[in-house]
Amino acid sequence: MWDYTEKVKDHFLNPRNTGKVEQANGTGEVGSLACGDALTLTLKINSDQIIEDAKFQTFGCASAIASSSALTEMVMGMHIDEASKITNEDIADYLGGLPKEKIHCSVMGRDALERAISDYRGEKIEVVTGNVICHCFGVTDVDIERAVKEAKLTTIEEVTDYLKAGGGCGNCHEEIEAIIRAVGQGVDYEPKKPAVPAKLTNMQKIKLIEKVIEEDVRPGLQKDHGDMELIDVDANRVIVKFRGACASCSKSQITLKNHVEAKLRELVSMELTVEEAVDENRIC
Asked: Which residues have CB under 8 Å from 36's CB, separation 6+?
């Protein structure tokens, strides 16, 4: 059981400002249901650039809900220039502290606020195009490098607490350590090139697909009470079926393409496409 402060418990059990702001002119969306945490923050900002209203919708644990609730209370009445300086540490401090394993929840709030203010200003939100390091939670080398620099992280455990990266199957630990070393030495991180056979027989391809799904995909889904089953491989079509929480997740297609297909293309073949088995009884 996590050691939550009374303020965290209060904001979790009695969250403030839930829902969506009507006629919002600033929206920030971060995370995804695939990784277990997602947050949408909406703001109403007046002509003097003061935040008049803030509301949130979140999917996640007690810390995610409490951090989002606290953030909305913190920013209302602030000028956006002042609000833009809020850090994830400020959110955690407002709540009287968070367990170190839950710091990533306050990071998510900080990122949503940055995006909402950028949206209001009409600034193009930069799409991070780094290499995915942690496939369980979809965290890139750019994400990890930023966190290591900003929070002066020195261990895999600290990176996991901050971003969740490395908290699933553990296959990314070596590369997380390499990023930490590179930042510490002030040099550029060089991503590891995956060793993929130049040409696979059909049997080798199927076996490798099975291995990647078992070792690199399912652990991350299972961590958030979901799962996936390989149904068939037809040439370069990989057919799967979601189970558990993933079966009813509204973002399952995002997980299918951005996580499952991306991982199989990286480690098996760039020609692969992944499809979900048709479920005639499923209501969309």
From this structure: 59, 60, 61, 137, 164, 223, 224
Tokens of 182: 């590179």
Q: Specify the domain boundaries for CATH 3.90.1010.10 within the chain.
A: 6-121
**Parallel, antiparallel, or unpaired for β 226-234 and 237-244?**
antiparallel
Q: List own/partner pairs for 5-11 with CB under 8 A and 24 or more apart.
A: 5/95, 5/96, 5/97, 6/96, 7/66, 7/70, 7/94, 7/95, 7/96, 8/62, 8/63, 8/66, 8/95, 8/96, 8/98, 9/62, 9/66, 10/66, 11/65, 11/66, 11/67, 11/69, 11/70, 11/95
What is the residue type of 228? M
Residue 37 pLDDT exceeds 80:
no
Out of 3.30.300.130, 3.50.50.100, 3.40.190.10, 3.90.930.1, select the CATH number for domain 202-276. Answer: 3.30.300.130
64/5 Cα distance (integer angstroms) = 14
pTM of the complete model beyond 0.85: no
Can you tell me the mean pLDDT for 18-23? 94
Architecture of the domain defined by 6-121: Alpha-Beta Complex (3.90)
Return the H-helix or E-strand segment holding 132: strand 132-134
In the chain, what percentage of residues exceed pLDDT 90? 38
More confident residue, 162 or 74: 74
Query: Could you read off the pLDDT of 180-222 as tens digits, one per residue?
Result: 999 998 887 877 655 555 577 788 888 889 988 988 888 878 8
Residues serving a catalytic function are 35, 105
What CATH number should be reported for the domain whose range is 132-185?
1.10.10.1100
Lowest mean pLDDT among 97-106, 245-254, 275-284: 275-284
How much is the mean pLDDT over the chain? 85
